[in-house]
Design a protein that fits this description.
This protein has 1 helix and 18 strands. With 268 residues, the protein is mostly beta strands. It has one domain: Sandwich (Jelly Rolls). The N and C termini lie far apart (101 Å).
């Protein structure tokens, strides 16, 4: 007896269409379940505006810092201090010595910070100076490039810094101890220097004295305002950073001509 295998039954167009619809719906359902949850910005983190005042975070609010151990330029590593809701990034161009720092972050202020920080662990006296620019002309006015000395990488660490804001305002700010509210001495330039960004900024640690330095228009760096007294016992983290002052909007600061010396009196 000759056995003939049955021919395959051709799929009907209706069956093919139904299968396609099923797969499409299944894919959409899977995508919906795997999509990241919507980022919710706490009201206190929203920036100041005509209709809103930014206020301090709740006293017990923290997010863990995320550290990336790969060296970048002269710095040993970089960190998203305070775990901003949108991760930051940074690149170093060895041809022109430029550090391009991208970061969101609600602020570097109150009792905790959120910003991208490029750092090196050091001890003793230091001199740190750099030029700062803001490529995005439309960024939020209180965004800032900072030169920072921090005791730890936690969001509420004791620290001292010089910050250059998007408006050109420059300040010496400090958190005297962990979890304390920041204090500052702010400098706004007027007259023919209205809306001028300083040409160069610097911070120096000499024993327990912290002072900031500035060159407004290219003149030699000079101390700007009185120093503060703040001890940093043992090793600390020193480096450069940027904060957009917008909790989920990434902006960019560019830091060039960085000089970092393990000695006081080397600002230039």
């Amino acid at each position: 007896m000759k056995i003939v295998a049955p021919s395959p039954v051709p799929q009907q167009p209706a069956r093919v269409a139904a299968l396609a619809i099923f797969l499409l719906l299944a894919g959409a359902s899977l995508q919906a379940h795997s999509a990241p949850p919507q980022v919710v910005v706490p009201d206190w983190a929203q920036p100041g505006s005509a209709t809103h005042n930014q206020v301090p975070p709740p006293a017990d609010f923290h997010r863990p810092t995320v550290t990336f151990s790969k060296p970048i330029g002269i710095f040993a590593a970089q960190s998203d201090i305070g775990g901003p809701l949108v991760p930051g990034a940074a690149e170093y161009d060895a041809t022109n010595g430029a550090y391009t720092i991208h970061s969101a972050g609600y602020n570097i202020w109150y009792q905790r910070d959120e910003f991208r920080f490029l750092w090196k662990k050091m001890d003793g006296d230091i001199s740190l100076a750099a030029d700062a620019t803001f490529p995005n002309a439309e960024g939020y006015g209180d965004r800032k490039v900072v030169l920072v000395i921090r005791l730890t990488l936690e969001d509420d660490s004791a620290e001292a810094m010089i910050g250059e804001h998007g408006t050109g305002m420059t300040h010496l700010a400090w958190r005297a101890e962990r979890g304390a509210q920041m204090k500052d001495m702010s400098y706004r330039f007027g007259g023919t220097l209205t809306n001028i960004h300083p040409k160069r900024i610097g911070i120096e640690k000499h024993a327990n004295s912290i002072a900031i330095y500035i060159s407004l228009t290219g003149e030699p760096m000079h101390q700007f305002g009185p120093p503060i007294t703040m001890p940093f016992d043992g090793p600390y983290y020193v480096g450069i950073g940027f904060c957009s002052h917008l909790p989920i909007t990434v902006d960019t600061g560019v830091v060039t001509n960085v000089v970092l010396e393990n000695s006081a009196g080397k600002i230039r």
